[in-house]
User: Fold this.
Amino acid sequence: MITLHDVKVWDTGEVIDLVIPGTAADLLTDADRPFPPAAAQVADGDVHIDATGLTVAPGLADPHVHFRDPGQTAKETMVSGCAAAASGGYTNVLIMPNTVPAMDGEKVAAGQPGTDEVLTAGHDCVIDFLQHYEADHGVTLPVAYDLCVCASKGRAGKEPTELADIAWYMPGRHTGEKDAAQLAHPVTAVSDDGSAVPDAILDEVLTRIKDAGLYLIEHCEHHDTGFINEGPVSRQLGLPGIPEDTELRIVARDIEAARRTGAHVHFQHVSTAGSFEAIRKAKAEGLPITCETAPHYIALTDEAILEYGPLAKMNPPLRSAADRQAVHAAIADGTVDLIATDHAPHTMEEKNAGLEAAPNGIIGLECAYGVCHKVLVDGGIISEQRLIELMATAPMHLMGHTPTDVAGLLNTSSACATKRTLDLGAVEHPESVNLVILDTDRPWTVEPERFHSKARNTPFGGWQVTGMPLATVIASKLVFSRL
Assistant:
């Protein structure tokens, strides 16, 4: 049993003792931070830690991650990606469908890239492969995850995915016939992430997802040329630029499509002032529109290309200083519903191929909270509590889950006292309790070489940030600690 003494509840400010059942036998830690820590008191096998100044909150959640498994496991695997998530304080993630082969529910064929991994595990579909990953590989993954299926077959943009064929994998369908893994990791959204859904099939995709009770996670950007944002930096480097309206055109198009169909469209990684204004107006009309932005659009501008080169190359590209100000304003006024990392691992060999040849994307799970806290909270843009809403409770609601209500658990498990105790071993549904322990004031340096992810492609290496996730609790069990 592990007891954290005098930890603060994130939304009420109440100081409590938190009791976490079990031992730390399979606990993930940083290499130089063994558990229990030297400052802990151990008596009869129980660990007691002074958590004064620390905060307990619902676990962070990210509806936009790429774990590259199957097909690109040199970049990331389910094991390393989930370890990175737990290290960053995340308890729930949504895995994007641009696996190899693509996660579209279709049966895979031998001889194609990535299919050997699926077939060797005894499956003929990427969804089955990912749902049963733990049992097939003999591992316990320290994060809960749902799956996002392709909007079009093979992410090719030609034919809408046959959602009727994957109804089995959706929550609430055929529940009496599914095994525990299928119930735990359902398909909850669709996306052709990396590409916007093409005009020719957009309405059909939206009609199908509305009928299925899903939502579209839209990559709201399309361009045929260009590598970085069109502006002074692209001209200085002599590279073709990507105009800002490449994003706004998709946003405006999809808002009209949501109006026609009534389907829920969630815009990924929104980055421009014009897009935020269009989304702001659509939400004021009551249209089923939500959106996210990412830590890199919060913290960086296209000037970062001059300093970090390909490590700052992403899609949509980093934008102007004015657009970054618009990101901050949209977060402050509630236009932005949540913050997602778009965790996109690549090998450093790929990223070192030069600005034009390097793939888009950066990793983000292990430093997102610190970067966002440094810019948004330390910068006076939002409060500590609002950051938790953006990174924990709102993403959970989008994904169709209920975030852990710490205060509510206290009210049902502990009588009123000078200092109450929340014993996770005594709650009614311990399997539903996912938490993060945060030191919101701790300064630290981002060191990619210490990441649990296989990848190192981030421009934030060496950054001084504040706010560190110290422990992650999944299903009432401690799965990661740097206490």
Remarks:
- The mean pLDDT is 95.
- The first helix runs from residue 78 to 87.
